[in-house]
Amino acid sequence: NIEYRKIAKFGQAECPSHLIYNQICTDKKTFTASLTTDVEAQFLLFDALRKLSITTSDIQDVTVNDSVLKNAMKFVRTEWLKSNQKSDLL
Hints:
This protein is mostly helical. It has helices at about 5-10, 35-50, 55-65, 65-80, and strands spanning about 20-25, 30-35.
């Protein structure tokens, strides 16, 4: 059953309900919603971009030339799964 709830009663005023990725029903009155990190990050990015006069292309251009961000992206792509190793990222 689908039940209408006002966003204020839903308890997720910062997060529109259409972005909910997983729902775990505990009973008829309550449920726990969780977002994947990727979906939440995309929402935050698009929300910020709407408020600023920049595009994702602008962010990509700056990111490519930033040494710290380049190292962070390299780490995530190649070393993330080897989390037991101490990283020189920072």
